[in-house]
């Protein structure tokens, strides 16, 4: 028998069918379900999924609830470190000295932000993003915060940020050296989430995960809420992988701020990568 552990309530679900996507105890979506896994591994079978992703009956009896051997690798560690770095930048924007009001940055305007003419910029990796004002670069400073062994495996890394209208946004592009083989989408997503969860003062963390596609790139979209300093925030983490390239976009705003939500939505709708078609979420 094989089992999947629910990351929300820790219940062990026996995997009897490829159609099992929610936990039998809390009824929330299982992040490691076969349907989503199959999108990323179309050539593999349900039996492969059981062997590579699920826990065995022997593991459960021994109390060994770690994932099957071989699941983690150097690519995952690298991607996790980069994903975590993005969250360090994001938290810095959210609660640090870099936050400024729109008035302090750009002056007053009688025109609502969603009716204004925005800036469309071209950024690293062939990315196009439309924001109220141009994003600021912070790449060199943050790259130096990565472990030396990770820096040695990165060919290029650029980081940009924007704060205004009640929301904060960060974009990071990274390209690995050929020795890495391929960017690890799952590792980056896990690293970003774990870093956000472990930040001091962050609690009541909730998130949903879905897979997206932009041209021939597979992506992950994670949305949810968390509480920090007595305030509840909404967040969105969108990550795409293309060979050795990794694209990560993360934003946050106070829950219930409709203007900030509108700004976030417009920015994400503008997110494009040269050479790829329109994106879609499954």
Structure description:
With 282 residues, this protein is α+β, with helices and mostly antiparallel strands. It folds into two domains: 2-62, no CATH class; 74-281, Protein Transport Mog1p, Chain A (3-Layer(aba) Sandwich). The chain is 29% helix and 33% strand. The chain has nine helices and 14 strands. An eight-stranded antiparallel sheet has the order 6-7-8-12-11-10-9-14, sandwiched between helices. Strand 9 (202-214) and strand 10 form a beta hairpin. Helix 4 crosses helix 8 (185-197). The protein is globular. 30% of the residues are buried.
Spatial strand order of the main sheet = 6-7-8-12-11-10-9-14
CATH architecture classification name of the largest domain:
3-Layer(aba) Sandwich
What oligomeric state do these chains adopt? single chain
Distance from first to last alpha carbon: 29 Å
Number of helices: 9
- Name the CATH class of the largest domain: Alpha Beta
Contiguous runs where pLDDT drops below 50 for at least 5 residues: 69-73, 93-108
Indicate the structural class. Answer: alpha+beta
Helical content band: 25-40%
Query: How many individual domains?
Result: 2
Task: Estimate the strand proportion.
Answer: 25-35%
Tell me, rounded to a whole number, the average pLDDT: 80
**Superfamily (CATH H level) name of the largest domain:** Mog1/PsbP, alpha/beta/alpha sandwich
Task: Tell me the CATH topology of the largest domain.
Answer: Protein Transport Mog1p, Chain A
Query: For the CA atoms, what is the radius of gyration?
Result: 20 Å
Q: What is the β-strand count?
A: 14
The ordered H/E elements are EEHHEHHHEEEHHEEHEEEEHEE
Largest sheet: 8 strands, antiparallel
Q: Which term fits the overall shape?
A: globular
Transmembrane segments: 76-96
Keywords: Membrane, Transmembrane, Transmembrane helix
């Amino acid at each position: 028998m094989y089992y999947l552990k629910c990351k929300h309530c820790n219940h062990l679900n026996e995997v009897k069918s490829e159609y099992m996507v929610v936990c039998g105890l809390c009824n929330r979506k299982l992040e490691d379900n076969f349907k989503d896994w199959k999108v990323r591994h179309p050539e593999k079978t349900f039996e492969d999924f059981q062997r590579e992703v699920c826990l065995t009956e022997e593991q459960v009896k021994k109390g060994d609830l770690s994932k099957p051997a071989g699941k983690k690798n150097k690519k995952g560690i690298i991607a996790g470190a980069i994903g975590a770095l993005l969250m360090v930048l994001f938290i810095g924007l959210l609660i640090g000295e870099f936050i400024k009001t729109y008035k302090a940055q750009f002056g007053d305007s009688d025109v609502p932000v969603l009716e204004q003419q925005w800036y469309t910029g071209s950024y690293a990796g062939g990315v196009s993003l439309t924001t109220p004002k141009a994003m600021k670069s912070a790449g060199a400073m943050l790259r130096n915060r990565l472990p030396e062994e990770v820096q040695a495996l990165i060919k290029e890394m650029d980081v940009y940020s924007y704060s205004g209208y009640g929301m904060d946004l960060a974009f990071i592009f990274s390209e690995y050296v050929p020795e890495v083989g391929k960017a690890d989408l799952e590792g980056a997503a896990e690293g970003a989430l774990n870093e956000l969860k472990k930040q001091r003062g962050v609690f009541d963390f909730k998130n949903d995960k879905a897979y997206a596609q932009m041209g021939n790139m597979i992506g992950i979209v994670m949305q949810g809420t968390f509480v920090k300093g007595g305030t509840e925030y909404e967040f969105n983490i969108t990550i795409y992988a293309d060979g050795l390239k990794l694209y990560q976009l993360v934003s946050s705003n106070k829950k219930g701020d409709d203007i900030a939500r509108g700004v976030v939505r417009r920015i994400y709708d503008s997110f494009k990568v040269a050479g790829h078609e329109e994106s879609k979420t499954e």
